[in-house]
Amino acid sequence: MTTPKRILIVGPGRAGKDTACEYLAKITELRFAGTTSLYLAKYVAARLGVSEQEAYRTRHQNRNFWHRVGNEVRKQDPGLLIRESLKHAEIVGGVRALAEIVACRDEHLVDLIVWIDNDRVPRGSTLTFGERECDVIVPNHWGLEDFHGRLLRLARFAGLPMRPDATTKDGQE
Fold first, then answer.
1. Percent of the chain with pLDDT strictly greater than 90
2. 101 and 110 in contact (C-beta within 8 Å)?
3. Do residues 65 and 87 make contact, with C-beta atoms less than 8 angstroms apart?
4. Which long-range contacts (CB under 8 A, 24 or more apart) does 60-69 make?
5. Sign of the C-alpha dihedral computed for residues 136, 3, 79 and 83 taken in this order
6. Would the pLDDT of 107 be above 70?
7. Alpha-carbon torsion 87, 89, 92, 93, what sign?
8. Comparing 23-37, 106-120, 138-152, 156-170, which segment has the lowest mean pLDDT?
9. φ and ψ at 146, to 5 degrees?
10. Secondary structure of 104-125 in the HEC alphabet?
11. How confident is the model at residue 155 (pLDDT cuts 50, 70, 90)?
């Protein structure tokens, strides 16, 4: 198996994607520069006539509008937000559309697609694909310590470049 160097973290809203991205960046030498929403912010801001920071800050209140703008961006170029994110980091999160997954595969943008599964959150209508389109499923059902342990095992199994100061016992620091 070749060492994954670029990872896409996906799943339903509030499943733990950001937590997974941040933790993987903490224990590996890979970087996380924010989700694709951070890169979508400039397109939303331009449409609203506000700063990127203001658009991003209010993204949850304007969820439907963000989704529409994101769909427009993805229709023009499904891999755009992922490529923009990968300019700054190797760990990407926040993808919502099957077209983005297809672009990742077709353009070889990422080496590993990880689905975060969390049975405590509903699968929202903005997510147009499921775990079947991913390479690996990481459950997040039982608490943060367990989730971190599973992510640590994934990182080791995938041969990710680990930080020398990374945790030594599964999930324990």
1. 82
2. no
3. no
4. 63/126, 66/37, 66/40, 67/96, 67/126, 69/40, 69/43, 69/44
5. positive
6. yes
7. negative
8. 156-170
9. -65, -45
10. HHHCCCCCEEEEEECCCCCCCC
11. very high
Query: What percent of the chain clears pLDDT 70, i.e. is strictly above it?
Result: 94
Give the span between the Cα atoms of 151 and 171, in whole angstroms. Answer: 8
Instruction: Say what the pTM is.
Output: 0.91
Distance, CA of 162 to chain centre: 19
- The amino acid at residue 39 is Y
* Number of residues written out for the chain: 173
Question: Which two three-digit tokens encode residue 154?
Answer: 């994934």
pLDDT in tens, 42-79: 999 999 999 999 999 998 898 889 999 999 999 999 99
